[in-house]
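hiii so um. not sure if this is the right channel but i have a protein structure encoded as tokens and i wanna go backwards to a sequence. like what aa goes where. can anyone help
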């Protein structure tokens, strides 16, 4: 039988596909997660994950184990949480922020699912620019936020990834890259990459504007912008390029910007974040509702 900590480590790594992020979610060390998974794989007799220096992926056996155990674990933890909520009284208002129209659309559905499950609670949503998310969470202006990741910041919890989308490069329409079908991460050494504000976590800034390519070639960094529309305006003006998620092509179509898919870059991930000291029953219930919503068959046609 699986022990609880083994199952939690396996399910979390299967969702994050990253040892560091999994350790942060579980509030343990990266070594502890690695040791737990290795021990579990020895007991089963086959690898559950395929690991390289650049990525972690589920093996066929690991994917089967995840698909068969995750629903049962969700039902068990959900039942326990509901029992706790009944005992505590899950009522009141939850204030939720989002960044960008695609996140807002997802959040509307999650908020409705949350209200359906907990009719004595309400969820009020509001849009935030990316630099506003952490200040709002820390000040208590909002309780939880749906935004892009990674956000490795002390006192901030990253919930499970809700959406993974292909990474694309926003370039000016007249740029040579605009005529290509794909670009490589190594191509960033040939251009200037725009930045996001220094007030944002270093983990997120490095994700969007790395200083070096995987082979070690330096990348020239350009100016930063406070809002996403400002960033795209700088791209269109030829000030630099910027990595974006695939949804941008639909929600931010512009005559001065072309979005070119990366052929070898990691996905752009989106998920809920909240203060570590603000993990209330309402916050946990909302996170569960959002996760169940994106896992529902209707959301994955």
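sure thing!! here u go:
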């Amino acid at each position: 039988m699986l022990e609880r900590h083994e199952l939690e480590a396996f399910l979390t790594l299967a969702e994050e596909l990253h040892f560091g992020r999994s350790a942060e979610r579980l509030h343990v060390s990266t070594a502890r997660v690695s040791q737990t998974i290795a021990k579990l794989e020895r007991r089963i007799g086959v690898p559950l994950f395929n690991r390289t220096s650049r990525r972690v992926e589920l093996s066929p056996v690991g994917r089967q184990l995840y698909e068969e155990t995750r629903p049962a674990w969700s039902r068990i933890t959900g039942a326990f949480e509901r029992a706790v909520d009944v005992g505590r009284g899950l009522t009141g208002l939850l204030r939720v922020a989002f960044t960008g129209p695609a996140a807002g659309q997802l959040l509307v559905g999650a908020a409705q699912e949350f209200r359906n499950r907990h009719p004595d609670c309400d969820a009020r949503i509001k849009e935030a620019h990316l630099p506003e998310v952490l200040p709002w969470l820390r000040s208590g202006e909002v309780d939880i936020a749906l935004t892009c990741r990674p956000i490795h910041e002390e006192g901030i919890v990253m919930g499970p990834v809700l959406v993974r989308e292909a990474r694309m490069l926003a370039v000016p329409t007249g740029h040579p890259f605009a005529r290509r079908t794909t670009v490589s991460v190594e191509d960033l050494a040939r251009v200037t990459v725009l930045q996001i504000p220094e007030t944002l976590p270093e983990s997120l800034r490095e994700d969007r504007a790395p200083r070096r390519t995987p082979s070690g070639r330096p990348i020239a960094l350009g100016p930063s912008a406070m809002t996403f529309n400002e960033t795209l305006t700088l791209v269109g003006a030829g000030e630099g390029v910027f990595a974006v998620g695939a949804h941008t092509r639909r929600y931010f179509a512009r005559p001065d910007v072309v979005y070119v898919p990366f052929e070898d870059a990691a996905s752009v991930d989106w998920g809920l974040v909240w203060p570590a000291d603000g993990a209330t029953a309402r916050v946990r219930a909302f996170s569960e509702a959002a996760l169940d919503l994106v896992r529902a068959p209707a959301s994955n046609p």
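oh and The chain is about 40% helix and 20% strand.
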